Amino acid sequence: MTFILLPFVEMFYASLRPLDHLFRSPYQFYSDDLSFWAYREMWKTVPMLPRYIFNSFFLASVTSLITLLFVIPAAYSYARFKFPFKNSSLYILLAINMFSGAVLLIPLYKVLRTFGLLNTYQAMIVPGVAFLIPTAIWLLKSYFEKIPIDLEEAAFVDGASRVQILRHIIAPLSTPGLVVVGIYAFIGSYAQQFLFAITFNQKKEYMPIPSGLYEFIGYTTVKWNEMMAASLVGIAPVLIIFLFLQKYIVAGLTSGAVKN
Amino acid sequence: MKQKLKSYNAQTYLAYALIAPAALYIVLIVAWPLLETIRLSFTNSSLAGEDYVGFENYQKMLSSKKFNGIVTRTFVWMFFSVSLKLIIGLIGAVLLNANLKGRSIFRVLVMPPWVVPIAIGMLGWLWLYNGYFGIIAGVGMRTGILDGPFGFLAYKQSAFISTIIADVWVGTPMVTVFFLAAMQGVPRDLYEAAYCDGASRWDRFFKITLPQITPVIITMSLLSAIWTFNSFEIIWILTEGGPRGATTTLIIDTYKQALGNYKFGRGAARAVVVMILLTLFAGFYLALLARINKKISHE
Known about the structure:
heterodimer, A: 260 residues, mainly alpha, MetI-like fold, elongated, B: 299 residues, globular
């Protein structure tokens, strides 16, 4: 427990202390003038900080929305229909999860360069979506499977069209599942931004916060207290979302990977 | 009516049509690049252009002592990291599964390292490992273990160990949660029966819990090995593979060659080695999963 939380506690403590207290060797545990000063000052040290935060949110939102667009029909199809190659293709999806982005970066870099997409938002969104699709399909599939098929069949026999069934039965019943999968995609894309950002983007105005934070290190004296403050601000959104929904996310992930 | 229902449920073409967009996307962004990587590994591709060079990249790579060192180092790094994750994860899951006060809070508190973007979490570790002002060096100096400032990431051995510890920090929560989920799936009556027979706490753990969750332990070891093998950001941020290559794993080396020096061909040859190893892991994993699922459906 200490091991898990120590870095966070120390990050928070460091963010409250004045810089000259941090720069004492050996380490001093005690500081008398703790303040939220660094949380105000960091915006001046790295003036682009609001932009990085916006970029992170923008990239993560767009990435998760596009992921959902691709995943909803596919997951529905896996949950409802029987067809050749169903199981094998599901396993292939699992296998794709195991190839990290790092292996595919070389051709992706070349492709993005050919299309002139390096240093754009798209350069970080396009690969991001691809790595979220497999898990998202598995997650959403299990939600769709929970909707009793009898409901749909009854409506169909009564003469409802497929579109009507989709609108009046499946859409309302699957909303909770969609929210959870959307949030999984959001957290996932927020986390994977760093790799794509350092590889495919060198323009400051498109940088997401995980890589933007490294700007603090570029100065002659690293303002650790401000950097830690900014880090915590960067962590806060995903942590808050997670706290509210941790039950669903954990349950969904564990059921997807361990048993069928 | 039955026929009408049949037409509702057996529409293969519709099933495929719904999957097509996602499948196409994955083919374009994942499958095609995989093949392209293989092709590039036979060229001397760089920013300047490319020529076919046959097996030159592979010959150079396999005959270099440095590369062999990197492969060995990758597996040593992986071995320590995965073992620690499994051991700590198992202990953590047992504690979280026990009837302790406030366990639901603790269950949430173990997750942050996994939720937080690795790149940001590592900033915290950079500060902890700081040789002059960091808390670990500070405690070391005060207790007299260290006789002066010590940069944990500046020396070969300590950097190797430090990156492992940071990797364990990131990877353990996931392992713990999976073990916990498995433990909660163990049927209650097994414990109740054992309790009535007067089995001790240890007996119950070793004779009921452990055998019951063995499939999950095996799957998790493999999954965790794959994740650890793929670990890039942690090492890249803490040491960039240094000092003097002491923390350069296969993934780091691939990235350095390809996107640090823009030697795409050489990088691709390394990426192919990574792919082969990952395919082996993934094959093991899927075969195992298929077997476990078969067992479950038989019961």
